[in-house]
Specification:
- The chain is mainly alpha-helical and 179 residues long.
- It has two domains: 79 residues, Winged helix-like DNA-binding domain superfamily/Winged helix DNA-binding domain (Arc Repressor Mutant, subunit A); 72 residues.
- It is built from seven helices and three strands, in the order αβααββαααα.
- A hairpin with a 2-residue loop joins strand 2 and strand 3.
- Helix 2 packs across helix 3 and helix 6 packs antiparallel against helix 7.
- The longest helix has 40 residues.
- The chain is globular.
- The termini are far apart.
- The relative contact order is 0.10.
C-alpha cells in the first residue's frame, strides 16, 4: 500500500517515467523502501486503472517510446488525504518517514500536526514499554525493552529538532514576506 502513495507523492512534483520513479526511490528513499520494478510497475498499472494517474507515450529517436506518468486531480486528492491521516499501526515508522519526505505538499500547520501526532504515538509506546519493562522475566527481555525505549527516546528527540526547524523556517518565511 505504501508504494501507491510513494508513487503518487513523487508524481506530485511532476510527470515521471517508471525508470525515473525507480531512480528517485533508490537514491532518495532507499532507507525507507526498496521498491523494485516488480513492485512499482504493477502499482502504476493499478493507479492507471483507478484513474489516479494517466500515462502518455513520448516518442524517442531510435528507441521505443517512453511511458510518462502524471498524477490526476483524483490522485492528488487521494494523496493529500493520505498525508493527513495517521500512519497505519503496523507500518508506523516507514509510513511516517515517507510522509515526512513527501510533506512539501502540506501546509506548515499540517506538517507540524503530522510531527506532533507521531510524537504522541511515541509517548503512548514509551508508556507501554515502561510497563512492560517492569514485568520482564529475563535479562534478555529487559535488553530488548531497553533498546525499544532508547529508540523511542531518540526518535522523540529528533522529532523535537524537526519541529524546531519547521517553526524557524516558518518564522524566516514570515519575516521575508514582511520585508
Amino acid at each position: 500500500m505504501l508504494h501507491r502513495y510513494l508513487i503518487l507523492g513523487l508524481l506530485m512534483d511532476g510527470p515521471m517515467s517508471g525508470y525515473d520513479i525507480k531512480k528517485q526511490v533508490h537514491s532518495a528513499l532507499g532507507i525507507i523502501t526498496n521498491a523494485s520494478y516488480g513492485t512499482l510497475y504493477p502499482t502504476l498499472h493499478k493507479l492507471l486503472a483507478q484513474d489516479a494517474v494517466h500515462m502518455r507515450e513520448v516518442a524517442q529517436t531510435g528507441r521505443p517510446s517512453k511511458k510518462v506518468y502524471e498524477i490526476t486531480d483524483q490522485g492528488q486528492r487521494e494523496f493529500l488525504d493520505w498525508l493527513k491521516r495517521p500512519a497505519a499501526a503496523d507500518q508506523v515508522r516507514r509510513e511516517f518517514l515517507l510522509k515526512l519526505y513527501l510533506a512539501r505538499n502540506l501546509s506548515v500547520e499540517d506538517l507540524l500536526a503530522l510531527v506532533a501526532a507521531r510524537r504522541e504515538e511515541l509517548e503512548v509506546a514509551r508508556k507501554s514499554l515502561v510497563n512492560e519493562r517492569d514485568g520482564t522475566a529475563t535479562l534478555q527481555e529487559a535488553w530488548v525493552v531497553d533498546y525499544a525505549l532508547a529508540v523511542c527516546q531518540a526518535e522523540a528527540d529528533w522529532l523535537r529538532q524537526v519541529e524546531t526547524h519547521i517553526v524557524q523556517r516558518k518564522m524566516l518565511k514570515s519575516a521575508d514576506s514582511v520585508d
